[in-house]
Design a protein that fits this description.
This protein has 126 residues and is an alpha+beta fold. Helix 1 packs parallel to helix 2 (85-95). The protein has a six-stranded mixed beta sheet with strand order 1-2-3-8-6-7, covered by helices on one side. A two-stranded antiparallel sheet has the order 4-5. Helices cover 23% and strands 32% of the residues.
């Protein structure tokens, strides 16, 4: 069984996918770009501001599913520039203060809409 998770507090999908899908006790969250949910545009600024927005979008979907940042078990971060890794870590640590999830980070050639970062996650929902 799967349940589609959607909230207006996060950007709407820009393609044929769901913001999140709950299956059993797991929540799978699609990659979150640094889109401001209201206008649906990439937030202007550097990777620090974009990482913060992507994590806020992730947090909104978690909340809509009845979960939270403390229930995230795995994240994957996609970076336009691997040199941004340190700056992203600083922002990331503010959202995952205790017992951070497992994580992978990759540099990629391009991200949708010219974003500098995209973050996806798997979380528990109980």
């Amino acid at each position: 069984m799967k349940e589609i998770i959607s909230t207006p507090e996060a950007p709407q999908a820009i393609g044929p996918y769901s913001q999140g899908v709950r299956s059993g006790e797991f929540l799978f969250i699609s990659g979150q770009l640094p889109l401001d949910p209201a206008p649906g545009e990439i937030v202007p600024g550097d990777v620090t501001l974009q990482a913060e927005q992507a994590l806020k979008n992730l947090e909104a979907i978690l909340k809509a599913a009845g979960s939270g940042m403390d229930k995230v078990v795995k994240t994957t971060i996609f970076l336009k520039n691997i040199q941004d890794f340190k700056a992203v870590n600083e922002v990331y640590s503010r959202f995952f203060k205790h017992d951070p999830p497992a994580r992978s980070a990759f540099a990629v050639a391009e991200l949708p809409r010219g974003a500098l970062i995209e973050i996806e996650a798997i979380a528990l929902v109980k």
